[in-house]
Amino acid sequence: MNHLLDHSLAEAMVSASNEARADLLLNYLAEHGLTNYDENVTQLEHGLQSATLARNSGASRELVIGALLHDLGHLLVDEHAATGDFLDEDLNHEEVAADYLAPYLGPAVLEPIRLHVPAKRYLCTVDPDYYNGLSDASKRSFQVQGGKMSDEEKAEMEKNEFLEEALTLRRWDDGGKVKGLETPTLADFRDDLVAVLEAK
Q1: Between 93-101 and 107-126, two packed helices, what is the crossing angle to 10 degrees?
Q2: Average of pLDDT values for 122-132?
Q3: Of 111, 104, 109, 98, which Cα lies nearest the Cα of 12?
């Protein structure tokens, strides 16, 4: 299946104020996040649950917004559970999202997003119990995403200054898949989003 990158959001954000950029991002999540992430939650629900876990843990606003936006890449390439290749082809959604948002957000937001897939591979490499706790869908995508890290990949990951943030985001990602869970709305994250856009 062909997945084309949606440039419409980027085109709208170029000349917008940071307040307007926040609204554009939140509206995009609302409009495009209704597709299923898995059998339990939509992509929007997954992002909101992940961000809520981040906020409830006392995380920085950068990590809260990273958790909210970490799977934006899935939406930008229309990658979701209803597409037959969702778990069969790795479209590097983490890189798509981080690169797409790079003009507007700083590394404290972007790098945990960029690293949340390698973080799963890292955790599966160093902690067998972590792998055993993954959902069937996450185990399947883990194989498509490269499986366990080599010693070289593991050593490289451990040098990254955002390793701990990426591992933390990964665990929120894993936890944000609860059917029917009530969360704050997108609007409740707007102030944090504006703040991190202003901080760029």
Answers
A1: 160
A2: 95
A3: 104
* pTM passes above 0.90: yes
Would you say how long the chain is, in residues? 200
Non-local (6+) Cβ contacts of 140 within 8 A are: 87
For 70-87, the pLDDT digits (tens) are: 999 999 988 765 544 444
Q: How many CA atoms lie within 13 A of 200 on its CB side?
A: 17
Mapping DSSP onto H, E and C, the string for the chain reads CCCCCCCHHHHHHCCCCHHHHHHHHHHHHHHHCCCECCCCCEHHHHHHHHHHHHHHCCCCHHHHHHHHHCCHHHHHCCCCCCCCCCCCCCCCHHHHHHHHHCCCCCHHHHHHHHHHHHHHHHHHHHCHHHHHCCCHHHHHHHHHCCCCCCHHHHHHHHCCCCHHHHHHHHHHHHHCCCCCCCCCCHHHHHHHHHHHHHHC
Cα 193 to Cα 21: distance, rounded to the nearest angstrom: 9
**Domains along the chain?**
17-199 (1.10.3210.10)
Cα of first residue to Cα of last residue in the chain, in angstroms, is 36
Please write the tens of the pLDDT for every residue from 130-183: 999 988 878 888 888 899 999 999 999 999 999 999 999 999 999 999 999 999
